Amino acid sequence: AIHFLVVSWLTLFCAFLNGQKQQTSPCPKLFQYEAKNPNELDKWFGKITLTTDTDLIGAVWLLIIFDKPVLQLGTKFGQKILRLKPTEFLVQNLGYTLYADTPVPVRFFVKYTRGEVPPKLTEFRINSRIACPEAPSHRPPSSGIVLENVNSIFSNKTNKKKPEGGNIQAMSSIYIDRPVLELPDIPCGKVAETPIGLIAFGENTIPGQWPWHVAIYNFIEAQMRYTCGGSLISKKHVLTAAHCLTKARTTNPVKIDILTVYLGKHNLNNFGQEVQERKVSKITLHPQFSYNVLYNDIAILTLSEPVKFTDFVRPVCIWDDYIALDIVFDRLGTVVGWGFDENQQISNTLKKVEMPVKTHTDCILSNNEFFSKVMTKNNYCAGFRNGSSACNGDSGGGMVFPKQGTSGADTIWHIRGLVSIGVALQGQYICDNKQYIVFTDVAKYLKWIKDVLNEK
């Protein structure tokens, strides 16, 4: 018994000594360890100082990395803490603005296995950019949200140069004059009245013009990446492409806790008051989705909580016209998205384009080697092939048409297609305006969509 007590006492004493050792900060100006509490042998406290040289408006992500596994990290900064790995934690503070040259202290604690050497902080990042260890000659730069839209479609020019950049260098302020008021349940497919007319073919859109289009972000490799578009079809459901929500070359869905959906967004740099953020509670892939050739490339996201309908966030109608494809042959459908521009750069501003729906025969004859492998009865192709198209769009984004008999301010929009795949997307970072794009035909999945929406 005495031997057991001595061993136990020595174990505790060694743990105490380990915890009392003064850790060395990798960036003394921006992170300090606090004095150890002798009554807490499995915990230490520290303070990080957040600083930036340009305003980070609307969202701050703080990634903290350790040299060994951590059991728990706690802080009052932000709304949610994600444990990405045993050694990496992401603190999300959405709606928060970190102003330039205005340091903000963030106190946190780390809990670890009692009796072991405490884990050490080795690095932290602010909005994906490394702030600690400090670079010898410069401070942490701004935002660092990465745009990863490799599934963009046609542009004005064909440029074989891989697009440079993609990192947002500053989170700009874009103020909306119209008040953001929650509206009662409203009919689908209706856009708020605005004194500004429609935007010309291929040009920028205006805030609220396509209120159902959403931006889907994915947390990948310690960065928030914009990956796909989608369409709001109810207060809690977003329709998108299945390949946007699966791990590469599999039918396995990604983890829901790494997804974030932004609604009401017009500029990717802006997280203003009109933008709503929702986490995801469920991913429903079509049961016959095939990743090889993207058959049945359709999925539905269930949001963690209902959205609020405003002038900037509204649902699109599900297609309820004839499901036969010939009803839309050579009709112009509208596609919107944050795709590549004519210079092969990611467009931060939502753009639109109109393109005609073509027959399967047209598609296959244009490129038999490609389209003969991917065309089915449940998809269709669309686009111009004359080199003059100014088409920008995102995978998962919708192709919409005005309902028959509606026009002008009374137009009701319903969704017929989802951007799925194109020849230019096969491992290349170029937009080929000489090829058609394949769309999943939403009209062929109406029963499946209804069943998912009616699930309890």
Automatic annotation (TrEMBL):
Pfam families: GD_N (PF16030), Trypsin (PF00089). It is found in: Secreted. The keyword Transmembrane helix does not apply. Keywords: Disulfide bond, Hydrolase, Protease, Secreted, Serine protease, Signal, Zymogen. GO terms for molecular function: serine-type endopeptidase activity. One of its GO terms (cellular component) is extracellular region. Coiled coil: none annotated. Residues 1-19 form the signal peptide. It comes from the Eukaryota. One of its GO terms (biological process) is proteolysis. Residues 199-454 form the Peptidase S1 domain. This is Peptidase S1 domain-containing protein. It comes from Brassicogethes aeneus (Rape pollen beetle).
